[in-house]
Every structure is written in C-alpha cells, then in structure tokens.
Amino acid sequence: MTELSQATAQNTRKDAYQSASSRLTRSSLLIWNATLAVMFAVAAAIPWASNGLSFWFYLLQWVTLATAVNLVAGLVGYLPFGFVAFFGIGSYAAAVLTQFHGVLAGWSICGAAMAGTVLALLFAPTMRLSGVFFSIVSLSLSIVLKSLVSILPEHVAGGSSGVTITAIKDPSLAYYLMVALCLVSLSIATLIAVTPYGLRLKAIRDDAGAAAMIGIDVTRLRLSVWLLSATIASTCGGIEALYSSVIDPSASFNMLISAKAIIYAALGGLGTVMGPLLGALLMSVVDELIWARFPVANLFILGALISLTVLAMPKGLIGSLLDRHPRFRRWLF
Amino acid sequence: MKRRQFLTLSGRAGLLAAAANAAPALLTRRAAAQTRSSIRIGMSISSTGPFAHDAQSGSRAIKMWLDDANRQGGLLHRGRRLPIELLIRDDRSDKQLVPRVYESLINDDKIDLVLGPYGSTLTAAAAAVTERYDVFMMGWAVAADTVFQQGYRFIVNGGTTPISRVPDVPVQVLKDVGGRVVSTIAVDEPYSEALAGLIKIAAEKRGLRIGTMEKYQRGARDFTISLQKAAAAGTDLLCITSYDSDMIAMLRQMKENDINFPAIFSGFSQNSSILALGADAIGLWGQFNIDPRVHYPVTRGADAAGFLKAYRATYPGGPDPDINTAVAYAGTTVLGAVIEQAADLSAAALKRAALDLSGKLTVLSGTYAIDETGQQTGFNILVLQNTADGRDVIAPASVATAKPRYPMPTWAERA
After folding, report:
1. Inter-chain touch B190–A250, beta carbons under 8 Å
2. Model confidence over B297-307: pLDDT tens digits?
3. Counting Cβ atoms within 10 Å, is residue B85 exposed (0-12), middle (13-18) or buried (19+)?
4. Do A299 and B92 touch (CB under 8 A)?
5. How far is A158 from chain B (nearest CA, A)?
6. What ipTM was predicted for this assembly?
C-alpha cells in the first residue's frame, strides 16, 4: 500500500470514529445502557417472581438469536437461512458432552461455543457468494449437517433418536446462562454500533467494492462478524439443550429457528441494535397472547400480523420510524 | 446460653417454623380435595406441524373418552363422581413451545394432572416440566424407551406398545414359518431408524440372519438399488419402517422390476393409501393394536369392536380410526382407572395407583402393565396380513384369526 493510500485509510478511520461517536449522544447511550441494566435486573429476578420460566427463557433466546442473525444480515448483508446449523451444532455439542462424557454444564457450553466457531470457519468459504446464492448454500449446508448428525452412531450423538439429558436437571442454571448470553450479545451489538467497526461493516454491506477501495479489509471484517454471530448462535443452542433436556435432529435443526430469528430481527429493524430486541420482544409477547386464546387459528393470526407489519413497515419498526422521523436517530440505533 | 443449648433451641424453633409453614399448605390441600368440584386435566395437541395428523387422530379418541366419562357424571374419586375438565392447548409440534404450554397449564390453569403430548420428543420436553413441578403425566403416544430410562418419577405410558416390543411379534412369525433372513429399509428419522435397529436385535436374538439394513434420506424416490440388494441377500422378511408414500413407491418398483419377497412388514400396510393398491397390497404384513375380532377380556372401557362402533357413530363420515386413535383411547381409559384408584390426585398417589393397577386392568388393546419406570410392559402389537377380502390377524398366536400366508403371492401370481 502506498503512503498516500495509507494516509487516506487512516483519515477514513478517524472520520468514521468521529462520525460514529457524534451520531449518538452520550446521554442516549446512557439511557440505552440503563434500560438494558433494568431489563436484565428484571430478567435475573424472574425465577423468584414468576412461575412461567419457559416463556422468559425462550423470549431471551429469541432476542439473542435475532441479535446474532442481525450481525450478519443487518450489518454485512448476508441472509443466512441456514443459520439454524450453528444453533443445532451447539445443541448437539452441549448435549453430547454433558450426557455422554459427563462434562459440567459450564464446560459443555464452552464446547458448544467452540463447535459453532469451528463450523463457521468451515462454512466461511460460502461468504464468497452473495445474495440469494449465499442463502441457498447456507440452507443446503444446514440440511447436510442435520443428515450428518442423524447418521452418526447412537453412542456418538444419539442417532436420529437424539439425546435426552438427565445429567443436569436445573433449568434455573440454563436460564441464567441465557440471561448472560443475551446480555453479552446485546452488548456486542451496542459496541459494534458505537465504534468504527460497525460503520465499516455497514460500508461493506452497502458496497463491498467501495469499502475495499477506502482501505477496509472486507474479508477479515466479514469473517470476524460471521464467527461472532455463529458463536452466539451455537452457545444459544447449547443452553437451550440444557434447558429443554431433550434434543433430536428434527428439533435442533428445525428451519423455523432460522426463519423466526430472521423474521424477528427484520420486524424490529435489520441493521439496528434495538430492532432485533424490539422485534423478538413484541412477537414473543403477541405469540404468547394469541396461542392460548386461539388454539387452532393462532399461527394464522401470527402470520397475518407479520405480513401486515412487513407491508406497513418494510424496514421494520425501528427502521421505518427513523425514516419518518429522522430526529429520533440520536436515540434509536 | 451454651452453644449446645443454643443449637437445640434453634433446631426446635426451626421445626416449629417449618410445621407452621407446612400446616396451611396441608390444610389447603385437604380442603381443596374436599371442596373439589372437578378433575382438571391439561394436555397439548399439535394442531400444526409434523405431528398434527397423528395428534389429531388421537385427540378424537380422547374426546370420546371425555364425553363418555362426563356422561356418567365423571370419574369416581374418593367416593364422589367428579366431572373432568380437559384443557387442551396447541403445541404446534414444537419442542420449544411444549415446556411453555405445560408450565402454563400447571401454573395458570392449575390442572391436577396432565396427559402427554403426541410423540416421544415432545413428551420428554413436557416431562422435564412436569417432573419439576411434581405433576403426574399419563403418556399415550410415547413409544421411545429412552424417555423411561431418565429417572422420571411421575410419567406412565398407558397407551403405546414401546418401540422395543414392536419387532418381536413379526420377527417371531417369520421364525415360526421357517424364514431365516430379515432386511430393513428405513428413512433417516428417529422412529424409523430406531425400529430398524430393534428389528435387527429381535432377529439376532432368535438366531435369524440380517440381510441388508438400508437407509435413505426423506424425499428419496428411487429405491430400486436398495430393493435389489435386499433380494440378493436372500431376504425372507423385508421390514419397511418409513412412510406409506415411500412404501407405495417401493411396491411399484418391486412390481416393475419383478422383485419378490416371501414377506413384507410395515406399520402402514393397512393404511387406506396402501389398501388402495388393490391386489398389490395382498399378502403384506402390517401392525395395528386393535381388531374387532380380537376380544381381550376387557375390564374397563369399550372393547375393540365396541370402540370402533362408537367411533363411527361419533364421527360419521370422518377419518378412519388409526393406530393413534386406539392408543389414545387406551391411554385415557387407563388414566380413568388410575384416577379412580388413587388416594388423591398428587403425583405420588397417582403413580402408586398406576403401579397397583399394573397387570390387573385390561383395555381394548390388551392387559395394561408397567414397570417401576412407568414404561408399558403389557401391550403387544397385532400383526395383520392383507387378504383379497380383508385382513387376518396372524400374530400373536394367542389371538390369531388365521395362519400366515407364507410366502406371499409373487407379482406374477397376482397378475
């Protein structure tokens, strides 16, 4: 790289940092951090305050998955329909380590995270593709992985019957692990949003060629966010396996997991930090309200609501709000 | 005060405090039992998703049992007839929704006990919740033995023949008629694969040889190579443990390529889709759990003939009853007996009653028996063989209506 281009790159980074930090005021960040702190304090008290632990557990799971999928879909522009592969491999890693090898819960979750990272590295070459081609390959790989897990011998991964975890019977432990993971994933998303790293990712999403021209290492940044997202998803899968205590290939590699994470993130607003949180929160609450009241029509109603919301707000709740009221940009991100 | 005195006093105070805390709870429970006006049972049914069809088949029988019991004023519990309130929620065949459903039933709807969801995975997910809250669960569609190997205390299988017991009957028929080689074709899914593995074990236990064990991905359509390999291995009994649609494709490919087996067994052989093949379905061995000609000495509920008659009267023009309809009726009939036998509706009392009834209760699909884990050890499947004018029960020998036609007709003989 010539001296001129190095200087240009340095200036670009400096400008980017100033742009990122000036866009959000210190007070808006403080409010956001305070909101997160209150939310997680409430979440930590749930096991004492509420009987329905499952609702809260899965709410946090969807917030985490929507945030993780948003990192690759919203910030880099890849739509990973096979995202469930990371969730599934994490489930299996945690279940197999816990049940077949007697590994403690904490270490089995570390194993789940590592499994996701390794799988993301193996899938990394797919990032050469873009648009629909990436989505198709990602989907195919998750199907291949599901089949692979199914044909493994029973003593290795439970075969197609899956694994029932009996070594750990403490859902509260899994719940708190999920609270921690959710907090970590939102913190990572916030950090990305307020640092130049996030701006560079958005530059790549908007025009990878132009981003490379101004000195952004496109491949390295894409890979880093891909690994981050996959590791969060696989950790999430591992914790879910410990919570539900039963996994099988169909449930762990269920395409609905990818679809719901993408829908929740998109409904809230792809590319924003608050969007996936808001989308997952809103849809989980709506879902909770309708499934008990409409035993037969609940999925129909949910589908209709999602369709109407997307039609009315194609950029999601946060994105559409920012389009109409740009002055909120300081507070919503 | 000396340390010993302090500890003694503290211990007594602690005991008093514990008694004071426990007393209202005990009194409340006793009062609740005396003022109880109904028995509240919760369950989830899959209205959508991969289990929806089977779960709905079961739910029709559960509704029949419920209506029948409530017509008689409910179940006789502690000397009083109490109507049953059945609270049904949709689980969308989703393992992640099941814990929420059962938590909600326990905490919000205050049910007394639950019926399990459809399928082993969903039942295991529900059991993790019911065990945490000490709630009794009657499983009706839980074939996997692994669910009962986890140390769960309050789950009982009152409806289904465990998957481990299914292969024994057809494999024994083969041995009895002089066959020696068993092959399997399974789709790459839990039940199918597990059944294929158990068929292998059952065959080897009886000194029979395994020809081939083929496995395919869901969605595959060409089975010719697998069928030819099985034929080349000298297979006497081909066990197809996958879907009826795949079985139809296999039968067509057997016919096109003139591949013949002396016996073919599948759980779907008596499905209407297979019977619609006409002559091509003759001779197939299938599995069911009830038959109007098989009369077990039923001590509770309707026998098979009575149940089928009542089903057709309740659902005129509706779907035919299938294996899930029968297991659901068996499971709920057993549940009724357990509730009537139990000293109270606590999980421990219900499990005790379920164990006490083991071997003493006969329902439409046989004599109910369970082991300490709650797994079913009594019910056996019936093996049926399609004939030109219906079907024969060919096993178990004690209830068979005809001897097996072995070998079954070749494709040339059917033409």
Report:
1. yes
2. 999 999 999 99
3. middle
4. yes
5. 10
6. 0.73
